[in-house]
Hints:
It contains six helices and five strands. A hairpin with a 4-residue loop joins β4 and β5. The model has no long low-confidence stretch (mean pLDDT 88).
Amino acid sequence: MNSDDLVDLARNLTCAAGGDAAGEIEIEPLTGGGNNRVYAVTTRDGKYALKIYFRRPDDPRDRLGAEFSFCRFARRRGLAWTPAALACDPKRHAGLYEFIDGRPFDGFDRTAFLETRRFFSELNQRRFDPEAASLPLAIDSCFSCADYLRLVARRVNRLKGIPRESAVHGE
Length: 171
């Protein structure tokens, strides 16, 4: 996607979210998005996070749909632990979210453990909500120890399949 397309996408999503993107718009790439591309989008009425989801032609999973619908569900149920999902463009696999200032995760300590436990506890209190039943499954969801072991084995096998002479193998 070239810079003009990126600006067009950001403007369209910002407008769809109820913002005013008619004026100057600033787009800054952010790091840490894994396979996805994430940008900070600043307009005269606010700052947003624009996420463009990685998509392989042979992979039918809808990463945007799963994450966007989960964030919407969580916010509607009062769980402010996730960013607000503001607008999306399924054809371009892009979502616009509330921008949350932060820092990279630097390790799991007691505070992080307690916050994680609280998040899961509050989320699981809503597991029987009718809307929860209609949410798509997370991309790598596991419902048993066997599911988890199969997921890890698939990932390890993919890593083992990297040719020794490739740059990725060295990394």
